[in-house]
Amino acid sequence: MRELVKLTAVAWSYVKVSLALRFGFFMSLGITLLNTWILVNLWDAIRQNSPEAQAEFTAAELATYIAVAQVVSLARMSHANRQLFYKAMGSVDSGEIAMDLVRPIDNQVLRYSQWLGVFAVDTLMVALPTWLVFRLTGVIGDPDSGVQAVLFGLSVALGWLVAAGFHYLMAALTIVVTQSPGINMFRVAVQELLSGGLVPLTLLPAWLATFAVVFPFHAMVSSPTLIYIGRLEGLEALAALGVQAAWGVGMIVAGRLLWLRLVRRVLVQGG
Amino acid sequence: MRWAWIYAEGFRLMPKVLAQYRADTIATVIGDLLYRAVRLAFIGVIFAVTPQLGQWTAWEVMLMWSMAMLADAIGNFLFAFPNRVDSYFHSGQFDYARARPVPIVLWANLDASHPRYAMVVITFVATTAVAAANSGIFESLGQTGLLLLALLCTVFVLTGMRLIMFLSCAWFTRSRQFFHGIASFMDHSRYPIDIMGQPLRGVLTAIPIAFTVFYPVAFALRPDEYLMPGVLGLPVGLAMMAGGLVTLRFALRKYQSVGTPEVWGAS
Predict the structure, then answer these.
(1) Looking at the domain assignment, is residue A271 inside a domain?
(2) What is the DSSP letter of B261?
(3) What's the average model confidence in pLDDT over B156-163?
């Protein structure tokens, strides 16, 4: 309970910090809008020459899938979330981890709460306006029903939990490899491709689609997006939420174990 | 000339310095190469479901991507300064740069460069050559020359854009915050522009993202069809470089020491 109070307090303080950096959010919004516009155009062109894509999706469905996937994309986090993630990843290299370790809050709770605060602001200031722009311009449609919309919201939240867990694991690994840029670039590319953010997983080659489903990436973007466009309904949608929750909890446990094991190896020489 | 020697000496020492952090360096090099490999794999995914993208074949699209990656790596290796300028400005590191006996930009280039860019250059020279060969470019000397010109244009446009974007930190905010968003945007705009709708094509031409790789390479592949934007490639590249250098000049004037250098990794 005390940890929950701390989590809420830290998350709220990061909401305020994020809101103070408005220029960054406008930049994020602009970039997300342009990226989404490009990808919608790209997939429209692909579909025109692809019997496979035509059989799988109508033009409207595909446009909705791509735009919504970009809206909920947790691989390409917005700038403030990314800054926090990089700070976490660079904390061993910089020595800042020493300060994190003396704080009166568990490291995992601290990271999750920081990311949660920024995620909330991101959702309101980047994801929602992006969705609104593409909704108003007719690129994307609405979910089939109110229930689907609620399930979509839940799925986005669970997707964030999985993504946060994965990011925490990556940040913890920097105790072993202090320099993280290359690893992080690879993470972004793999996460974007296998989460379904750039391409619907059903259009991936079979072996790659299997790979994507075995790993947690699909739980970050593909699941909520498929719920939004109505490909996952009723029990199927609930099952997808269950899988997301399992991955989220699994990531928390894995992150906890990895952190406890690796933190003993931290050597700080004064920052 | 004396500076050129110092510059060369700096590059010679770079691997020695990084050899002290072998695991980190290897992880960074492999991570960077894998990142680019996954990006190229995405083209494979696209062409697994469609035989061509608009009028462009898989090899032609691969050529555009490889060329963009190659130009990006060349720019980063030889002119890495923009990537770190944000840190220099906000941490006070520029104070150290000013005290050194070489021009600020040269020192900063050396400091910000990394051997992984050299590895990427080598890798993408190979992939560009393979893609160009399979696109039939090497069958004509003229087209081969246009491809080299395209590389030059792409390096100029990308480097100029990086300079202008990242130096904005002198006036606005921490420009590095947008680094990955912009990198991702660049990635998504390396497809043939002519498959996009007219409004988006107009925006990408005006920005001028379309000149970062598409028009120069399209000119090399189909000189008659892309004569006008192709001819404009070099002037646009030079204009972007000039714009970047002018921005640099004003940004350096704007710089004020904050006097409290931070640790690099924290910025």
Answers:
(1) no
(2) -
(3) 88
Q: In Å, how far is A164's CA from the nearest CA of chain B?
A: 18
Query: CB distance B266–A87 less than 8 Å?
Result: yes
Residues of the domain holding A209: 2-265
Residue B253 is encoded by which pair of tokens? 């004037």
Does residue A84 belong to any structural domain of this protein? yes
CB-CB neighbors (< 8 A) of A186 in chain B: 31-32, 34-35, 38
CB contact under 8 A, B185 and A205: no
Of A42, A76, A83, the CB nearest to B177: A83
Is A112 a member of any domain? yes
- B111: nearest Cα among B91, B84, B137: B84
Task: Provide the domain count of chain A.
Answer: 1
Tokens in use for A220? 């970050």
Question: How far away is chain B from the Cα of A84, in angstroms, using its nearest Cα?
Answer: 10
pTM comes to 0.82
* DSSP-assigned letters across all residues of A152-203: HHHHHHHHHHHHHHHHHHHHHHTTTS---HHHHHHHHHHHHHHTTSSS-GGG
Decide if A78 and B172 are in contact by the 8 Å CB cutoff: no
| Nearest residue to B169 (alpha-carbon basis) of B99, B250, B109 | B250
The share of chain B scoring above pLDDT 70, in percent, equals 88
ipTM for this prediction: 0.81
CB atoms within 10 A of CB B185: 19
pLDDT at B181 > cutoff 70 = no
Q: Which residue in the set B39, B185, B264 is minimally distant from A34, CB to CB?
A: B185
Contacts of B203 in chain A (CB under 8 A): 34
CA distance to partner chain B, nearest, from residue A89 (Å): 9
* Bigger pLDDT: A171 vs B234: B234
Residue A20 has pLDDT above 60, yes or no: yes
- Domain presence at residue A178: yes
**CA distance, residue B147 to nearest chain A CA (Å):** 25
